[in-house]
Structures are given as C-alpha cells and as structure tokens.
C-alpha cells in the first residue's frame, strides 16, 4: 500500500544536527551522524567534554545558543536534571521548523518539561537503548547504535512529519525505531532497565555481605548478574526515580523471590521458578519476526510498536511515504 501524498508526510532529510551533551550517547551520536554525511556541531556544559570532542576533530560551539543556530535537528543528550536548564537556554533560539529530540531513559518527565519550557517546539522524544557501563566522550563509539532498539515517542500533539524524519535518520544509523507513547515506554523500561539495575545493586550488596571467601569464589553468575552495578549511581538514579511503573515491576520481582525463599524454607525445590525463568529467557531470544508495511496512521503506528514491532525503512518517492517494518509472528 502506498500512502497518499500529503503535506504532513513530506519528510525532507535533516542536514544540520546539533548535539547538546557529549558523553557516551551524545558523543557516539555526534560521531555516527557525521559518518552519514550530515553537518554536525556539539556543545557540552562540561569544558573537558567539549575539548575532547574538539581535539577529535569535531566542531564544538562556545555556548548552547550558538550551537543550535541554523540546526534543523537538535538533540538533548544530557542527564534528566539538566534538561530543563537546557530548554530554557535554547528554546528561544530554535527555528519554527527545527525538530527537537532527546535520548533520555524516561520520556514522560522530558515531555512535560518541553511542554512547559518550550511550548510549540516540534518535539519527538527518543530513547536509544544502547548504553554500556562506561561513560563520557572517551567511551563514545559511532557503531554504538547498530541494531539497537530506539524508542520514538508519538503523542497526540506530535508532528507526523517530524516523527517520520527522525525515524528515517534512526534507520540510517542502523538502529530500530520503535513507535510508542511516553507512558508506554516508561512502563516498559521499568522492567527491562530500571528493575535490572535495582536487582544488580542488590546482588552486588548481597555478595559483599557474604564475606571475602564468597567474593574470591565469585565467577560468571555473580559477575554477569551484577555487571550493570558498575554504572554511575547518579545515572541509575535518573533512570529509576520518578518512574511509578518501577514499583509494580519490583512487586513482581519480589513475588518471585519470595516464592523461591518460601520454597527453600519449606524444603521444596526452586525448580518451578528456574523452569519458568529459563523458558521466558529462551522464548525472548528465539522470537521470530516477519516483514510488514506499516501505515502512517498514528493509532496504527503506536499499535505496531506496542505489539513489539519496529520500523526498518522510511521510503520517500513521488507517491508519498512508505514505512517498512518488522513485527513478531
């Protein structure tokens, strides 16, 4: 099916992109965007990050207002507490047709901040799920986003044109844009990001409480299970605090842990938990998908993401715009 031509579905590619924040994600994005041939410029409130990017040959602006001048895409790539100050700083300097996005873990707080401090801006929230424990410009990698899911937020007031332009760029970076709402995204990441980090911290502390012998014997299971506890605490805090959905995720995890504890206390086996967990992990690894054409109808687009699908290509031709994607079978 070909989507009929309509002004809202004309999706010219971006040409000049500003990245505000040059840590792991922002730095990787700056590198990856330049590899696609786009004109890029960065800025970071931390002088050391800007100096490192400049030393690597990237243009770095002296301030945020200068950085966003002439940009048709601006990316907020700073921790959540820094988003509001950034919006206050750059909001008045954005062109009417500039698209604004972000790369933070939680989407509802950023959406609320944009609506309050930069109303009228063409905002499309984003979240590339591509982080590693290392942080900062030194850890940045232009290949970081290859094959990673990238939540792209679609709300009732989201510009379809802006969303399609950003989805096309995400595809160009080798990532998988997943259409979703801010609320759905935050609920989902509570279980696959927030909860794993909380459990990793708990595991690290529990292992420590076992004493030196246990730590000397610790190997693959402990190392893998506590790996993300190496993440900077302030980042973990920004991913968890304020996400009410994490409470329900913790309740579910506590239920399973309590069931295992009660079984052991009663002399029973933890096999039911081990079997169910093994099946859940195996099924996730072996999910199968099929190629589909995705309609640009907003409700259907969000439904595609809710069903586990993503976009693989944004095709532009004389007849309009077509979206190709994948969905679970």
The rounded distance between the terminal residues' Cα atoms is 20 Å
Arithmetic mean of pLDDT = 94
Major beta sheet, strand line-up: 2-1-3-4-5
CATH-derived topology of the largest domain: Rossmann fold
Uncertain ranges: 1-9
Radius of gyration: 21 Å
Number of helices: 13
H-E string: EHEHHEHEHEEEHEHHHHHHEHEE
Strand content: 15-25%
Q: How many domains, as an integer?
A: 2
CATH superfamily of the largest domain: NAD(P)-binding Rossmann-like Domain
Helix content: 40-55%
Write the CATH architecture name of the largest domain.
3-Layer(aba) Sandwich
The outline comes out as: globular
Beta-strand segment tally: 11
Structural class: alpha/beta
Largest sheet: 5 strands, parallel
Q: Can you identify the CATH class of the largest domain?
A: Alpha Beta
Pfam families: PDH_C, PDH_N
Protein name: Prephenate dehydrogenase
Keywords: Oxidoreductase
Domain Prephenate/arogenate dehydrogenase: 15-295
Could you explain the architecture of this structure?
By secondary structure, the protein is an alpha/beta fold. It has two domains: 14-180 and 290-328, Rossmann fold; 186-285, 6-phosphogluconate dehydrogenase C-terminal fold (Orthogonal Bundle), CATH 1.10.3660.10. Helices cover 46% and strands 17% of the residues. It has 13 helices and eleven strands. The protein has helices spanning 24-35, 47-55, 64-68, 83-90, 108-117, 160-172, 182-209, 212-217, 220-225, 233-240, 245-265, 271-285, 298-306; strands spanning 16-20, 39-43, 73-76, 99-102, 122-124, 126-128, 149-153, 176-180, 289-294, 310-317, 320-328. Strands 2-1-3-4-5 form a five-stranded parallel beta sheet, sandwiched between helices. The chain has a three-stranded mixed beta sheet with strand order 6-7-8. Helix 1 (24-35) links the parallel strand 1 and strand 2. The chain is globular. The model is unreliable at 1-9 (pLDDT under 50).
